[in-house]
Design a protein that fits this description.
alpha+beta, single chain, 16% helix
C-alpha cells in the first residue's frame, strides 16, 4: 500500500513538473519564433540622468542576433553581433570590430541594465532548469501561473533561481525575478502594455529593474516586430556588421 501511494505521488509530481516546463516553453516560443525583425527604443534611467537609444534587431533563434543602433547620432551605426556563445561590437567611429572576451560577458551592454551575457542568452530557460509550478497568482489584473526554475547541476548559468509569472491561456511572460546563488533577489524583468504585433499578442513595454542599484532601470519599448522572417546564418557575419542599415 505504501509503495502504491509513493508511486502515485511520484507520477503526480512528475506530471506537474512537465506541465510547468510546457508552460515555460510556450511562453518562450511566443516571443522568440524561429526568426524575427524588430524596431525598438531603449531608455537607460539613472538617478541623475537618462538617455534613449533607437535600434533595429534581427534574430535567428537561438544562436544569432544582430542589433543596429539608429539613434542618438553619436551612437548611430554601432552594431552588436551574437553568434552562438560569442559577441562582437562594431564601432564605426574607430572603424573596429571588437570581440567581447569571456571576462567581460557580465559587464553592462551600452550602459544599460542588460549584460553582454543577457544578449548571448547562453542559458535556455527551457532546457537548463528544472521547473516547478508553485501555484496560481493574480498579478497586474492577470491570472498567472507562478513557476520556479532551479538550474540543473550541469547547466552553466549565472542564476541560483528564477521565478516567473506567466499569464494563463495567453502564455505571456509578465514578470521574471532573478536570484543569485545566495537566494538574494538581483533584478526583475517586467512586461506591460499588451498589444498585437504580426498576429501575436505580446507585451510591448518592458522594464529591467536592478535591486542593488536604487533609481536605475532600463526600459524597452517595441514599436514593431515581424516574426518568422526570411533570413539565414550568412546575414550574421562580421562583414555585414559594417554594411547593415
Amino acid at each position: 500500500m505504501k509503495n502504491l501511494i509513493f508511486t502515485l505521488i511520484l507520477i503526480y509530481s512528475t506530471s506537474y513538473s512537465q506541465d510547468a516546463k510546457e508552460i515555460v516553453q510556450k511562453a518562450d516560443e511566443l516571443m522568440r519564433a524561429n526568426s524575427s525583425y524588430s524596431e525598438l527604443k531603449m531608455q537607460i534611467v539613472k538617478p541623475d540622468w537618462s538617455r534613449t537609444m533607437g535600434m533595429k534587431a534581427w534574430a535567428l533563434e537561438p544562436d544569432y542576433t544582430l542589433i543596429y543602433i539608429t539613434e542618438p547620432a553619436r551612437d548611430k551605426g554601432s552594431v552588436t553581433l551574437k553568434r552562438k556563445n560569442e559577441v562582437w561590437n562594431w564601432l564605426p567611429s574607430a572603424q573596429k570590430v571588437i570581440k567581447i572576451p569571456p571576462s567581460m560577458m557580465l559587464q553592462s551592454w551600452m550602459g544599460s541594465d542588460f549584460t553582454n551575457d543577457d544578449l548571448v542568452r547562453q542559458s535556455s530557460i527551457v532546457e537548463d532548469y528544472n521547473h516547478s509550478l508553485m501555484g496560481e497568482e493574480k498579478l497586474n489584473n492577470y491570472d498567472c501561473y507562478k513557476i520556479e526554475m532551479i538550474p540543473k547541476p550541469e547547466a552553466g548559468v549565472v542564476w541560483g533561481k528564477v521565478n516567473s509569472w506567466i499569464v494563463k491561456e495567453k502564455y505571456l511572460q509578465l514578470k521574471t525575478d532573478y536570484y543569485d546563488e545566495d537566494g538574494t533577489l538581483v533584478k526583475s524583468f517586467n512586461g506591460s502594455n499588451e498589444v498585437k504585433m504580426d498576429g501575436r499578442n505580446i507585451f510591448s513595454h518592458w522594464e529591467m529593474v536592478p535591486y542593488d542599484k536604487p533609481g536605475n532601470k532600463t526600459i524597452l519599448d517595441y514599436e514593431k516586430i515581424d516574426f518568422n522572417i526570411n533570413i539565414d546564418e550568412s546575414f550574421f557575419s562580421e562583414q555585414n556588421m559594417k554594411r547593415v542599415r
